[in-house]
């Protein structure tokens, strides 16, 4: 004759569907809460108003509007002439190059402006008096003199500083090493 298994023992080894459903429900609730916590922590990127490397003001058009922040993209350190260059850049969203240039003209007091055109893109560089800081606004491809949509803005630091002639050469796509 077959032995009968007590109901308690069978519940421990073969859970009833209601208990399993309850465990799964609890698991999904906890998983959803964790997912929301992580997405709200990472989905709300910080919105910078100044470049972290230079401390210079940052054009508001670097915010895509999707609340993901506007952290810079670091470029590799490179030698330029006899200087060490550190640089980052930010994408510019839905703004005209002329608007970005006008904003920087009014926010970078004491900086000189140099304009050029290279690879079918406008290049406008702002440099401080000793050539240690540059801000370069680049437009989307277009005809020379056209006010295209802005593409990006780069912030560059040079140690030691570069000459005014070298800054101007950046906007033309052919670096000229010249003494101050």
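Q: What amino acid sequence fits the structure above?
A:
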């Amino acid at each position: 004759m077959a032995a009968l298994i007590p109901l308690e023992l069978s519940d421990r080894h073969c859970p009833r569907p209601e208990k399993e459903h309850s465990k799964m429900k609890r698991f999904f609730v906890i998983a959803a809460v964790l997912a929301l916590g992580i997405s709200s922590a990472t989905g709300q990127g910080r919105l910078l108003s100044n470049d972290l490397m230079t401390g210079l003001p940052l054009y508001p058009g670097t915010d895509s509007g999707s609340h993901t922040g506007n952290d810079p993209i670091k470029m590799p350190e490179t030698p330029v002439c006899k200087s060490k260059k550190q640089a980052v850049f930010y994408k510019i969203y839905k703004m005209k190059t002329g608007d970005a240039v006008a904003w920087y003209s009014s926010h970078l007091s004491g900086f000189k402006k140099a304009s050029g055109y290279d690879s079918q893109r406008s290049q406008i560089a702002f440099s401080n008096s000793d050539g240690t800081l540059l801000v370069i606004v680049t437009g989307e491809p277009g005809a020379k003199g056209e006010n295209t949509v802005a593409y990006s803005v780069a912030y560059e630091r040079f140690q030691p500083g570069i000459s005014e002639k070298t800054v101007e050469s950046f906007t033309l796509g052919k670096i000229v090493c010249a003494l101050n």
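Q: And what stands out in the fold?
A: The radius of gyration is 28 Å.
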